[in-house]
Structures are given as structure tokens and as C-alpha cells.
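Sharing a chain and its predicted structure for anyone who wants a worked example. Both blocks are below, sequence first, C-alpha cells second.
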Amino acid sequence: MKSLLCTCMALVALFAGAGIASAAENPTAPQTVLTLDDCVRLALKAAPELGEAQSDIALATSKLDEAKSYRYPQMDMTTLVGPAPAAHRSDIIPTIKTDIPFSINALTWFTSADATIIQPLYTFGKISENMKAATHGIEVDRSRKQQRANEIVLKVHEYYNGLLLAREMKELVLEIEEILIRAREKAQKLLNQGSDTVDEMDLYKLDAFSGMATKYLEEAKKGEALALAALRARMGMPVDAPLEAGTERLVIMDAEIPPLATYLDNARARRPEFHQIEEGLKARAALVEAAKANYYPDIFLGGLFSWAYAEERDRVRNPYINDPLNHFNAGVALGARWKLDFGITGAKVAGERAQYNRLLSTREYADANIPLQVKKYYLDLVEARNSAAATRKAYLNAKKWAVTAVANFDFGMGPAKDIFEALEAYSTMRSDFFKSIYNYRIATANLDYATSEPLRSQEP
């Protein structure tokens, strides 16, 4: 009995430690029956984390669009309107006058427009490498979104199977409680008949165990409510939404476990972290090259347009004289723009190379630890399967023991002590059996997460 009670306590602590909020049940409302796969799909649809990840993808896409836009012409334009002094040809013909006085009354208005157009021709990789980095950056964010989706799927598996485990524990407590009630009634009857196989102490023990069973029955119900609340929250449902699991019992899938090498190969091929690191390395390598391109000039084709007009100023058509307030100029030229600095570009290159080297270390860590994680989950799966087989045989024999002990007690042939011992063994073995199935299903979900396995059902 103590083992049963400890099991219930551990189950409740499992959910409470996860920080899951409880929700009230509404028995009058129609129930929404969902299978595990239904819960996973709804959770993926409602997950705010995936919305954030999609926004990151959109941001990376905008950076790619920005990098592409540098291939097209860029134009700077300035317009001015303001006062200007009047000027006439007579002021420079036949000689240039140098003593014309300034007069506010002689002011006029001018307007001007200046535009410069630059079309990049060759930038030594500044544009192309940034485009390449942005392209790989999009793939990094897509892999990160897939990783978050895998984490959500794993959580749903934990909550759903935790719900089934809580229900199995509740049923077990109810079964033990019913046996104790029948045994108590029989003990009271034998005691009233003056039988020497039972005494007052047996009644006290039965009452004590029944009270504890009732207490932990409430704990099991609480665990069930917590698991339902977790599923609702994960699927974005209201806290009071009626929800029912489509699976009634916690059962194990009767399927052959592939060899460990299969899981390791799948993890290497499909794990989003590996793809994320590889794409990140390509992006960082491109950023290193883009930073190094700043050592070289930009070759461009430039166009110039400049126009200004003032009503009280005569236009001077002489290539040696340019009037900034009344003129029209335009032209095209091939140019090179080269920004030289003392250490700034070198520091930027070193910084990008450091980020690249950091990702190399991350790849080494992933190469060493992800296979270790896969192997751990694989061993958990094998252990849980073997434990389920062993504890199933044990609890079936313990149940026979309990049935025999209760029957002997009913006929006045055995002491109440045999019932306590048999029920303790039965409750321990049966609870261990369900925990082994739960561990098996969680290990399966962990392996699916570790290998980025597509969504698949855990139902037999």
C-alpha cells in the first residue's frame, strides 16, 4: 500500500513541478474527444512559438530582399528654394565688376534640383556575399522553427501520456479501495461472530489504509485534472473547455525496435540542429567574405543632374563660369569609390571569423552530444519495454495472490495480514507496470524528437 501511495505522490509532483495550471471540469458541456495525433496538430496550430519563428523567417527574408536591392541604381536628390541676389550680363561685360553692392531690394527667388544616380557594376563580393548570407540565414530560421515544433510535439506527448498514467493510477486506487471496503465489512462480520482469525487491530489497519487510499484517490484525480489543463493550455483552448482523451487505456505498442544505428543515421540526416548549424556556417562564411570585400573599391556607373533657376539672374553660358543659382548640367561617368580606414575593416573581418569559429565549436558539441542523447533515449526505450514485460507478469501473479488472500479471509481461513501483504505487492507491481508503459511511450516520443521523426501515432 505504501508503494501505491508513493506512486500517486510522485505522479502529482511530476505535474506540479512542470508548473501546469489546473482547470475546473464542466460535466454538463459536450466533451471534445481528441486522440494524441489530434492534440499534436492542434498544439502546432495554436503554438505562439511557431508564430515567433515565422516572424524570424520573414525578417530574414527581408534582409535577403535588402541585399538584392543593392544591385539596382540608387539615387540621391536635393531640392532648394530660397532668396538669391540678382545678376545680369552687364555686370561682367566688357569687364567683370567687383564692387557691386548688396541690396535687399534687388533680391530674387531661386529654385534648384540636384540628383546623383549610381549603378553598382562590381563590388568584389559585397553584394553577392551578403545575398548568400541572407539566403542561408533563412534556412537557419526555418530549421529553428522545425526544432521548436519538435519540442511542442514532445510536450504534448508528455501531457497526453501523463493523463493516461494518472487515470490508470486512479483506477488502481479505486480497485484497492473497493477491496479494502469489502475486507473491512467481512472483518466486522467475523469479529461480531467471535472468530479468532480477526481482532480489533485488523479493523484499525483496514480503516487506516482505506483513509489513506481515499486521500490519494483525490491526489490522482488532481493529477488527471492537471494533465487535462496542460493539454488545454498547449492547444490554446479555454481553461474550462470540455476535453476528453480519445485513448482510454495506457497500452504499449507491440512493435519491433530498430537497431540503434538506424536512429543515429536518422538523427544525422533529419535533426534540425544539424541543418541549422550547417546553414549557419555557410552564412557566417559568406559574412566573412563580405567583410573582406571592404578592402576593395566599388566600381560603379554614375549619372549627374543639376538644375537651378532664378528669374532676375541672367544665365551665363561659359564653361569656365558656373552659376550655382541659374544653370543646367548633366553627365555620365565611370567611377570607383574606395573607403580606406586604419583597422576598422580588419576588426570587422576578425569579428565575423570569430562567429564562424564559434559555430564550428557548436558543431563539434552537437556531433558529440546528439548521438549520446539518441543512445540514452534508445536505452530508455529498451529498458521500459523489458520492464513492462517483467512487471506485467509480476502484477498478474500478485493479483492472484491478493484474490487468494481475500478468499481465504472471507472463509475465515487466513489472517488479514495476508491481505495487506498481497495488496501491497499487487499495487506496487501494477503501478510499476503502468509507469513502465508510460516510460516506454515517453522514450518513443524522445527518440522521435531526437531523430526529428515525422508525426506518428503511438496507438496500437
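Comments welcome. Residues 1-28 have pLDDT under 50 and may be disordered.
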